[in-house]
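Consortium newsletter contribution from the modelling node. Members have asked for a concrete example of what our holo predictions look like. Here is one, prepared for the MF3 complex that several groups have been discussing at recent meetings.
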Amino acid sequence: MAVKLKSEDELKIMREAGRIVGQTLEKIREMVRPGLNLLDVESFVEDEFKRVGAIETFRGYSPAPKYPPYPSNICISVNEQLVHGIPVDRVLQDGDIVSFDLGATYKGYVGDAAITVAVGEVSDEAKRLMKVTEDALWAGIKAAGTGTHLNDISTAIEDAITPSGFSIVRGYGGHGVGRDMHEEPHVQNHRMRFRGQPLKPGLVLALEPMVNVGGPDTVECDDGWTVKTRDGSLCCHFEHTIAIRAGREVEVLTLP
Ligand code: MF3
Ligand code: CO
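And here is the predicted structure:
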């Protein structure tokens, strides 16, 4: 499958889709406190998307026949849950870290981003984990640009994480974004053996480093979706959708 480069008109719409995601995530960040029920976040997203005219990208999504259609509009993953957590009747506790991964479809185009947020007072290790993961995302963004190659992103993300002693999750990664949430190419969070394709203006990518405090292995839960660390250690996920522009510029589409 070929990479789809976006026109200026398409990027204009993707900027709007991205802003909806970024602004909604920012509002969710402000809601976070001990006692917040995950189902209230799901309802909030439903209301917000109705208000701004966005479609819930995640609801009903199935990447392969073995996955049941995703039953919500957001992924909420707490502590040892890495990604794809389904919102349930659960209340956040002081000391939790929680990732919110949100997709919006606006005028046919997708924005995709994720943040991890501290609930109340969290451990120093949790704070370091969140900083390392978010820094790795920005290292990947800074390494992107016209004239660089896909592996420059992967290498920058890996090199930002390795000195921490934490583990890079290998089974999941970033992806192209457009009319579909998942387009070519796949973006590894660790270096490839080849420099990969050149990054061209109009390429839109979601970068999403995933980092575990303990070992790199993950397991899928019985709900068919939730991915957690095999050893139960704390983990973290940040994601932005970015557009490669002419002149080595990179635009982050999912900022608030
Ligand atoms: N944002 C996630 C990703 O990039 C997608 C969530 S999976 C879904 O892969 F089913 F919830 F859509
Ligand atoms: Co994504």
